[in-house]
Specification:
Chain lengths: ~230, ~400
């Protein structure tokens, strides 16, 4: 369901053109649990942005659920992100002034759901990550691990088929990080059709995935399925 | 996302950032209030002046000697000539007068007041009613009878606890009998109030009280003419000038040795001064509004920069550019409209308070000022909200998310 065909990505840096991805091919099927690893500057973040429809490839094709999304408009990309992809960031990226539940509601709101419907869905997502009793707390009133759980609930609320996590444990201590990883895995057990893609440079985190794709200098260096 | 939902999001953003919202509004509130209050003040001044003039009628014409011409003087014969309908067809009444300040004593009190030697028509022409006694008569004028009509306040000052009517007073050193007291008129604009005057037959003032004045015994200080109507007043002014030039044997090209001033032209020149004042006030208000608008723009731009990450997050979870743009624009419009309404309420409060602590001067809120100020504040909201909104919507989600 994710088919990446010979994708390149270049950035203009004034006069120079910096090519970050040099023709990547990658196919990820529904329900896989994949880690993308590589040192910083390897192009793994750029690849993640392309997979997450946050950025367009310069050349090549990206088919998401049989649809070519490589050259869609901003508006259509926003729709793809909203419907198909749930993001979890290293630094949580919650909106600080509104409650945890309101944060979780936002993707459902952008999807056009009614107030009562998204209230129900956001509450269910908060319960799924074990924060059913923290609905009205603001993000800053929660611990780092709890904030990341809120972010995961937000990623799940529209029932996306891809959960895309960028260094999800990078800002957490190892015990909390482990709990977050456990949560990811348990969520996939409940919904085996959901694909999880982890982007990390931490080999211990990557080792938990069933498949590890390593990126080096803008190319796939190895692709190992355990 | 529906428009209602975008509105809801904009409101949420405004209410969860109260301080930011208040600071944004402050400039517009002050700007709108300044425009509305200043224009209300201008209108208040206009009304005040109109009211003052309405008190003594706009069809009165005053003739005085031209002080720039040596030996210029007006006489009782001039007055009679003007009163002649053959000379001035639109004349209704003419009152010559002689005035000066003299000491008045009675009842152990001694004060200095304006003495006005006039003919009895003075009272009817200027709508001066009497609360005690009656006016002196034409025979009093002819017989040089020593009688006086006291202004309301003069009577109070001289006879605080007695009836003034029938009392004897000393004007300078001339004994006179009080035959009447005028009603209270209050302030009467640029000229002395009749409350502070004393009226005597013109002949008494000419020959006894103010005999040593520069123009001589036969002269008068001024002649007041009442035209038949305000519309014929300017024609009467021309006829009066022609009559007097003839009588004073002035040749063509020679300057008038008299001045003719009608209330209508005085009022219109005052009105043009007030108009300039109002434009000036409006300009100050406009500057205040502009400064407020620039404040809004600054805060909006700072807003976008500060909220870059928020925009990135919203985009990542599925907000399309149009939705982001609309949210920022609605935030700007809501803030400016709200600020506009608050500014209007603030100015209304100021006017109400001004009117409750004093009554001489009444500022009146102008509907067009309210509409103008509100319109400008909404315009500022849209214009200054649009730029940051477009900037926010064009941000690359990847870059916005990376923003520190």
């Amino acid at each position: 369901m994710i088919e990446i065909l010979n994708i390149t990505k270049s950035f203009k840096m004034g006069e120079n053109v910096l090519t970050v991805l040099h023709g990547v091919d990658l196919t990820i099927k529904a329900g896989e649990y994949v880690a993308i690893i590589g040192p910083s500057g390897s192009g793994k973040s750029t690849l993640m942005n392309v997979i997450g429809c946050l950025d367009k490839p310069t050349t090549g094709h990206y088919r998401l659920n049989q649809q070519d999304v490589s050259q869609l408009s901003e508006k259509e990309l926003a729709r793809q992100r909203n419907k198909n992809i749930g993001f979890v960031f290293q630094r949580f990226n919650l909106l600080g002034k509104i409650s945890a539940q309101r944060n979780v509601e936002l993707p459902a709101q952008y999807a056009g759901m009614s107030l009562s419907q998204r209230r129900m869905l956001s509450q269910r997502a908060m319960e799924a990550v074990g924060l059913g009793d923290r609905l009205d707390h603001r993000p800053l009133e929660l611990s780092g691990g709890q904030q990341q759980r809120v972010a995961i609930a937000r990623a799940l609320v529209n029932r996306p088929n891809i959960l895309l996590a960028d260094e999800p444990t990078g800002a957490l201590d190892s015990k909390t990080g482990k709990e977050i990883m456990d949560l990811f895995e348990s969520l996939q057990v409940q919904n085996p059709e959901m694909t999880i893609i982890l982007v990390t440079h931490d080999h211990d985190v990557a080792a938990r995935a069933k498949r590890v794709v390593s990126i080096r200098d803008g190319l796939i260096a190895s692709d190992i399925t355990n | 996302m529906s428009l209602l939902e975008i509105f809801r999001t904009a409101f949420e953003s405004l209410t969860t950032n109260k301080l930011r919202t208040l600071l944004t509004m402050l400039g517009i509130v002050i700007g709108v209030a300044a425009v509305v209050i200043l224009l209300a003040m201008g209108e208040g001044v206009q009304l005040y002046i109109d009211k003052q003039f309405a008190g003594f009628g706009s069809n009165l014409i005053t003739i005085t000697p031209n002080l720039k011409v040596p030996d210029a003087r007006l006489t009782m014969d001039d007055s009679r000539a003007i009163a002649d309908k053959a000379n001035v067809p639109n004349v209704k009444r003419v009152v010559p007068s002689v005035g000066g300040e003299l000491k008045i004593s009675a009842n152990g009190n001694s004060i200095s007041r304006n003495i006005n030697g006039v003919t009895p028509d003075n009272f009817s022409m200027r709508n001066i009613g009497l609360i005690q006694g009656s006016s002196f008569t034409n025979s009093d004028v002819e017989n040089r009878n020593r009688v006086a009509v006291l202004g309301y306040k003069v009577a109070q000052d001289l006879f605080p606890d007695q009836v003034a009517l029938g009392q004897n007073i000393l004007i300078d050193s001339l004994p006179a009998r009080v035959v009447g007291v005028t009603e209270k008129k209050g302030s009467q604009g640029p000229s002395t109030s009749t409350d502070d005057m004393i009226f005597v037959p013109i002949t008494v003032a000419q020959e006894k009280l103010l005999a040593n004045r520069p123009g001589g015994v036969k002269s008068v200080s001024s002649i007041t003419v009442e035209a038949e109507s305000a519309a014929t007043s300017s024609r009467a002014v021309n006829d009066i000038a022609k009559t007097l030039r003839g009588r004073h044997n002035l040749l063509a090209g020679q300057t008038d040795d008299f001045q003719v001033l009608d209330q209508a032209s005085l009022l219109s020149s005052l009105s043009s001064i007030i108009n300039i004042l109002q434009i000036f006030l409006a300009l100050i208000g406009a500057i205040a509004l502009l400064v407020g608008g620039i404040g809004i723009m600054n805060i909006m731009i700072v807003n976008v920069t500060e909220r870059t990450r928020e925009i990135g997050v919203r985009k990542a979870i599925g907000a399309d550019p149009a939705t982001i743009r609309l949210q920022f624009l609605i935030e700007a419009i809501v803030v400016t409209c709200l600020a506009g309404v608050l500014g209007i309420v603030l100015s209304w409060l100021c006017v109400v308070i001004t009117n409750s602590v004093q009554t001489t001067f009444t500022p009146v809120i102008q509907l067009d000022a309210v509409i103008l100020a509100f319109g400008v504040s909404v315009f500022i909201g849209v214009v200054f909200g649009l730029y940051p909104a477009i900037r926010a919507s064009n941000m690359e989600p990847v870059e916005a998310l990376r923003y520190e």
